[in-house]
């Protein structure tokens, strides 16, 4: 140990990287973090509603996918934080833990109960301070002393009750607490905004005991070819640092790029661009992300101040978070998905196991919100609300491959969205469920009709599959839940150790082998807490 500068080098001071840096350094370990972006907590970043405005800034990677055959052959935008705290510093603040059965599927897949929901629960609790004690259905499912505060119901939007009524009238049940391991139904929208400010991971988790290097781009992991051991890292300015163990936390797009640049990945692909192979592993494969598509709904009486942009939508509390009260998570019936599974040459039980799963989500914003990168937008002028539909459990899998040997070049992103009939069916059913909500008597008291993009027909409950497919091909956009590119089971083992290389782990969204019915930050905080214990031998 004494000849090594650090015990742990963390590559990427993002969401998971900051958790690990904090926990390991506070436990007395000598830790260095290398983060490609700057440290910055400017107002623009700390604003709880600022996420959508950060896309064209220096604090984000601005990736583009290759043309997506099932989405109108468009190249889709994708983003990630390039700043200390990573994507937690630029995301939209929604706090959604996911479904217990998703984690159980993960545990089964890798044959290790530590990744089951019941074992991760302690770590979800450890990461959060839950502020709805008493109001929530399941007090024992939450933590009350963790670094990340989360809240729901702080803002009183005028359409809160009518929206809930509309969702219930469409046949969806009210779920008092969607963050207790079962998100199904219509649940309160929860965000991790505290005192009207964002909580970036690097502020919420104390980094004062770690050496933090910002604007420090790691160009490769140094690996001793003889012993197949990681010995440290080299930056793109050629400075090198040594460590007992390297923990790669560069996120699901940049982690596979860095592994491949270091000789860890598909041998044939690496050799085709002149990289000497260290170990042949399916790095970059199993890439999954959540695709979304929004519909915009014209309000009957916009002058009543029902949506963002109206001069009468002016309660000061509305500036303290995104304009939502509710989030809807739907399990589709077997009889709807089975034919699609057969068409894909699989079975529903192979894809999802048994029991209800959260296949699709409908967000209910009081603004014409659509994910960044969609070509169709309506200005937030108070005239429209929206229903973004998000696939949560896609079965399509894509890949990240190298475009060059330069770490600052973007890798090639092919998320392969909607490549399976299951996924296309889920999105069609999600659109239909959103339309059903907006056609209920409760919704029709405040909404007139859908406002389609120019040249497209209005979507109603009598629309055809082809009309929904055509719409999605036009408006589909990533929700930025990139994951799976250094999957547990294939690239890393259940301790997150890279197979065939000593002293190297991957600890970020890349390791998630299966899709999770959530947006990933809450899961990643919990997973990173679990990994911190695994590294210290406390969770074995
Ligand atoms: C625009 C957007 C909105 C989102 N909204 C939500 C939301 O509302 N709710 C939710 O739950 N989730 C949301 N997410 C997803 C969630 O934020 C991410 O899944 C999660 O934060 C990823 O954590 P991570 O630790 O895997 O990676 P990140 O937090 O992205 O961290 C990776 C870090 O590694 C650094 N890095 C990369 N390469 C190198 C290198 N070579 N050298 C040094 N450093 C490097 C990066 O700069 C970055 O800081 C959103 C994501 C995006 C992009």
Structural commentary:
The protein is α/β, with parallel strands linked by helices and 540 residues long. It has helices spanning 15-26, 43-46, 100-110, 117-127, 160-169, 201-204, 251-261, 267-272, 334-343, 348-352, 421-438, 441-444, 465-475, 521-535; strands at residues 6-11, 31-34, 60-68, 74-81, 128-130, 148-152, 185-188, 190-191, 211-213, 218-224, 229-235, 240-248, 264-265, 279-280, 291-293, 296-299, 326-330, 360-363, 384-386, 389-391, 399-401, 412-414, 447-450, 477-478, 504-506. The strands form seven sheets. Strands 1, 2, 9, 10, 11, 12 and 25 form a seven-stranded mixed β-sheet that branches. Strands 7-17-18-20-15-24 form a six-stranded antiparallel β-sheet, with helices on one face. A three-stranded mixed β-sheet has the order 5-6-8. The longest helix is centred in the last third of the chain and has 18 residues, at 421-438. 58% of the residues are buried. The mean pLDDT is 96. Flavin-adenine dinucleotide is lined by residues 11-17, 34-37, 51, 79-83, 86-88, 90-94, 96, 217-218, 249-252, 254, 258, 407, 480-481, 508-509, 519-522, 524.
Give descriptors for this structure.
540 residues; seven-stranded mixed sheet; six-stranded antiparallel sheet; 25 strands; 24% helix; globular; binds flavin-adenine dinucleotide
């Amino acid at each position: 140990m004494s000849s090594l500068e650090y015990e742990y080098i963390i590559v990427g001071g993002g969401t998971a990287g900051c958790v690990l840096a904090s926990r390991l350094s506070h436990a007395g370990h000598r830790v260095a973090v290398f983060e490609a972006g700057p440290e910055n907590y400017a107002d623009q970043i700390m604003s709880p509603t600022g996420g959508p405005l950060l896309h064209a800034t220096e604090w984000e990677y601005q990736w583009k996918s290759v043309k997506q055959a099932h989405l109108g052959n468009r190249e889709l935008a994708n983003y990630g934080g390039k700043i200390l705290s990573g994507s937690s510093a630029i995301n939209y603040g929604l706090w959604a833990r996911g479904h217990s059965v998703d984690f159980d599927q993960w545990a089964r897949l890798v044959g290790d109960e530590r990744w089951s929901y019941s074992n991760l629960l302690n770590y979800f609790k450890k990461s959060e301070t839950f502020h709805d004690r008493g109001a929530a259905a399941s007090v024992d499912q939450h933590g009350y002393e963790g670094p990340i505060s989360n809240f729901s119901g702080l803002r009183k939007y005028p359409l809160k009750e009518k929206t809930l009524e509309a969702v219930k009238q469409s046949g969806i049940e009210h779920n008092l607490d969607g963050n207790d391991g079962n998100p199904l139904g219509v649940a309160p929208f929860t965000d991790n905004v505290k005192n009207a400010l964002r909580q970036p991971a690097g502020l919420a988790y104390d980094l004062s005991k770690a050496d933090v290097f910002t604007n420090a781009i790691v160009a490769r992991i140094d690996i001793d070819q003889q012993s197949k051991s990681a010995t440290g890292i080299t930056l793109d300015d050629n400075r090198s640092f040594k460590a007992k163990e390297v923990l790669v936390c560069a996120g699901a797009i940049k982690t596979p790029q860095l592994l491949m640049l270091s000789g860890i990945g598909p041998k044939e692909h690496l050799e085709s661009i002149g990289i000497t192979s260290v170990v042949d592993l399916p790095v970059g494969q199993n890439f999954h992300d959540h695709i979304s598509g929004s519909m915009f709904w014209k309000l009957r009486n916009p002058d009543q101040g029902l949506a963002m942009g109206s001069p009468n939508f002016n309660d000061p509390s509305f500036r303290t978070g995104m304009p939502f009260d509710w989030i809807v998570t739907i399990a589709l019936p077997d009889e709807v998905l089975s034919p699609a599974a057969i068409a894909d040459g699989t079975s529903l039980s192979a894809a999802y196991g048994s029991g209800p799963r959260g296949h699709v989500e409908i967000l209910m914003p009081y603004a014409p919100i659509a994910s960044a990168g969609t070509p169709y937008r309506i200005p937030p002028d108070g005239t429209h609300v929206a229903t973004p539909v998000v696939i949560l459990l896609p079965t399509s899998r894509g890949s990240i491959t190298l475009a060059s040997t330069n770490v600052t070049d973007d890798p090639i992103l092919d998320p392969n969205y909607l490549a399976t009939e299951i996924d296309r069916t889920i999105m069609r059913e999600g659109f239909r469920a959103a339309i059903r909500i907006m056609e209920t008597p409760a919704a029709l008291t405040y909404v007139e009709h859908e406002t389609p993009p120019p040249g497209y027909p209005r979507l109603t409950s009598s629309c055809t599959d082809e009309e929904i497919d055509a719409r999605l091909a036009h408006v589909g956009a990533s929700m930025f839940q990139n994951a799976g590119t250094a999957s547990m089971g294939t690239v890393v083992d259940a301790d997150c150790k890279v197979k065939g290389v000593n002293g190297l782990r991957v600890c970020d969204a890349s390791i998630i082998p299966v899709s999770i019915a959530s947006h990933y930050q809450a899961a990643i905080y919990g997973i990173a807490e679990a990994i911190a214990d695994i590294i210290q031998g406390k969770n074995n």
